[in-house]
Write a structure and sequence with these properties.
This protein is α+β, with helices and mostly antiparallel strands. It has helices at 2-21, 58-69, 132-139, 141-160, and strands spanning 75-78, 89-94, 100-106, 109-114. The chain has a 4-stranded antiparallel sheet. Strand 2 and strand 3 (100-106) form a beta hairpin. It is globular and about 50 Å long.
Length: 163
């Protein structure tokens, strides 16, 4: 699973980043993704929307992650106390159930590294998740409910608009 997350997370992360850059909201479209390492299904984008480069700033990615799911948690923000860097960022999240976590965001994905804000417990060896949606889905029934309700509302709006 970790190898799978390593290959899949950067693609979806870049896809979400490009969607925001191009004015397309995909945050409600992708909740959890099954990836095959040999699979390459890259959707076509206008060339000026594609951002090239091997180095991804995890601090910027962390801000994007927070903005994508803030509606479905009690509190979420990028840590200002922990050392965020180009290759790692830390996100504090409080679920709707009141549980607090410190998340680590790297190229490998997201994982829980602490059970309090701004806390990193090096003895934890938690699973990496490809997406923030998958991670929160495993931690919080309240997140699942909020996400499902938001998706239903969006589908209702599409139905009302005749699409």
């Amino acid at each position: 699973m970790r190898d799978q997350a390593f290959f899949c997370f950067p693609f979806w992360s870049k896809l979400l980043h490009m969607s925001r850059k191009c004015g397309v909201d995909l945050s409600m479209e992708i909740m959890e993704v099954d990836c095959n390492q040999g699979e390459s299904t890259i959707p076509p984008f206008e060339e000026d929307c594609v951002e090239l480069g091997d180095v991804k700033d995890m601090r910027l990615e962390a801000e994007a992650v927070v903005n994508d799911v803030l509606f479905a948690v009690a509190e979420m923000f990028v840590s200002q106390k922990l050392d965020n860097a180009l290759d790692v960022a830390y996100i504090n999240v409080e679920t709707r159930e009141g549980n607090r976590y410190c998340l680590e965001l790297t190229e490998a994905g997201l994982r829980v590294v602490g059970y309090a804000f701004d806390q990193v417990d090096d003895s934890l060896s938690t699973q990496y998740h490809e997406t923030v949606y998958s991670l929160l889905d495993s931690l919080s029934p309240g997140y699942r409910e909020a996400f499902g309700n938001a998706l239903l509302q969006r589908l209702e709006r599409l139905k009302q608009n005749g699409q």
